[in-house]
Structure formats: structure tokens, C-alpha cells
Amino acid sequence: MLTVGNIIPLFLKKINNYSDKELISIAYIVIEEILGLNKINVIINNANVISTNDEVKINEIIKDLIANKPIQYILGKANFFNLSFIVNKHVLIPRQETEQLINWILNYEFNSVLDIGTGSACIPISLAKNSTANITAIDISSNAIKIAKKNADNYNLNITFLCEDIFKFNPDSKFDLIVSNPPYVLESEMKKMHKNVLNFEPHNALFVEDSDPLIFYNYIAQFAFKYLNSKGALFFEINESFGVEIKLILNKLDFVNIELKKDLNGKDRMIKAIKK
Predict the structure, then answer these.
(1) pTM (2 decimals)?
(2) In the prediction, which pLDDT does 11 show?
(3) 50, 84, 118, 145: least buried by Cβ within 10 Å?
(4) pLDDT of 201-244, one tens digit each?
(5) Same-domain pairing of 193 and 235
(6) Is 25 in the same domain as 100?
């Protein structure tokens, strides 16, 4: 028989591919999802025996975690910007760094937005919940667009989603703001990545060839210069290793007020530029 109080020790005993701190955090997420108990209620209900059905569910989750499957994919959802998003193998798990990007964007005024490479739609949905802008979001993956639409529908948001390749996309209007978190991890960096990312998250949303690491930044910057309104803003999430190079790209295109911003870990992670 498994009691509520024994769930966290069970996670710590059986799973060894996470730190104890990460495992405890994951265990609390699982307990709340399966049993509906928050941290305080876990203490109160410490001695309660859980049902056989719930014990089976918890053991299945433990098996998936041992196999390096991210908890967000196991549960089919991820929390981001105080919202809940459906996620699966077709979309990246939203990251804390992207929350910082959204907070930065919300300091600016805009009435129209284009999000390039939307994935789960965490960026356009977060912006839509905090503005009255008309928002368009594109992704080359039809499976990602399906997830994005479901997430927007869950919040009754009217966002235009298009399955488009940015290298072939020709919108019929301009935008006040263009934002993109494009693939930027070098293929040579694969060996450094945790298996829960490498084995489960979509590679086409993560990786670029070492021979042309700035392919998306080069093209999207040119695209943005053409399709931004005057005084419009371009925001990128970036690979920390290429901040200087991306600034040069934007400088050459005559963008102004270019600013590189660090994430919570002190890494160059996002950049903003304004069209004259």
C-alpha cells in the first residue's frame, strides 16, 4: 500500500536521472495532478493510503521519468506565464526565458503582432491575454498549429494561425511587432543536452546546422524590415553565443535602438530592435 507521505521517497528511490530538488518538485506536480493535493494538503494527508488506480498511474509516470520523458509531455500540459498549455512531442515545452521575453515585449505598445515559429502558441496567447492586439502566428509544422489552435480555443482567443514556412511567407499586411524564438541550438551542441530534451522535443524546432547557425536570424531580420510598420519592434530569443553577430545583422539592416538582454542566469538570451 502506498501512502501520500511515501510518494516523494518513492520518487527519490526509483529515479536517478534528476537532482533530488528537481525530483521533489516533479513529485509535487504529480501528486497535485493525480490526487489533487497541494503541498500543505500532502502534509495533512500524509498517512492516507491512495487507491490502487492512483498508485498504478504514479508508477507509470515513474517509468516514463526513468526513460527521460519530460513531466510536461507525460501530463500533456505545461505551465507558462500563469497559464496552462497543452503540449506534446510536436511542440517545445515553454521555457522560463521566454516568459522574460514576453515581459519585455509588454513594455511596448502594439496593435498588430506576428509570431514566427509559434509551437504551442505560448507567446501569442500570453500577449493576447495581456493586450488587445490583432495577432497572427505561423509555424511550418501542421501538428504544431493544431496544438496552438487548441490552446487558443481553451482561452477563447481570436488568434490567426497559419501553417507557413517563413522562407516562403508573404503576408498581406504589416505589423507593429514581430517576435520569434527560432531554432538556434547548434547540432554540435546535441551531445551536451539532457536526454529529456534530445530524445523527446522536436528537433526541427531546436537545432540549426553548424555551417549556418544564423540562418533564421538573417532571414527573419530582412523579413521584419520589410513587414514592420515604421517604429515597429522586432524581438528575438537567441543563442547566447551569437548576441554580437545578431546585433551586427540588425545594424546592417539599419534597425535602431538595438538592445541585448540577459536572462535570469546572466546569459545573453534575447534581443530587441526598432525599425526607423
Answers:
(1) 0.94
(2) 98
(3) 84
(4) 999 999 999 999 999 999 999 999 999 999 999 999 999 999 99
(5) yes
(6) no
Question: Sign of dihedral through CA atoms 143, 71, 193, 235?
Answer: positive
pLDDT digits (tens, 9 = 90+) for 244-267: 999 999 999 999 999 999 999 999
Predicted confidence band of residue 191 (pLDDT cuts 50, 70, 90): confident
CA distances from 147 to 91, 143, 152, 194 (A): 8, 7, 9, 24
CATH number at residue 180: 3.40.50.150
Instruction: Please give the Cα distance from 111 to 231 (Å, whole number).
Output: 12
Which amino acid is located at 19 in the chain?
S
Residue with the three cell numbers 521555457: 95
Instruction: Look at residue 85 and tell me if it is in a domain.
Output: no
| Count of domains for the chain | 2
Is residue 132 located within the same domain as residue 250? yes
User: Are 158 and 265 found together in one domain?
Assistant: yes
Whole-number pLDDT of residue 192: 85
**Is residue 118 a contact partner of residue 125, using CB atoms and an 8 Å limit?**
no
For 10-21, write each residue's pLDDT tens digit: 999 999 999 999
pLDDT band, very low/low/confident/very high, at 40 (cuts 50, 70, 90): very high
Residue 128 lies in a domain: yes
Q: Is residue 72 part of a domain?
A: no
CA distance 249 to 221: 8
What DSSP string describes 158-171? --EEEE--TTT---
- Chain centre distance of CA 36: 25
For β-strands 160-163 and 134-139, DSSP reports them as: parallel
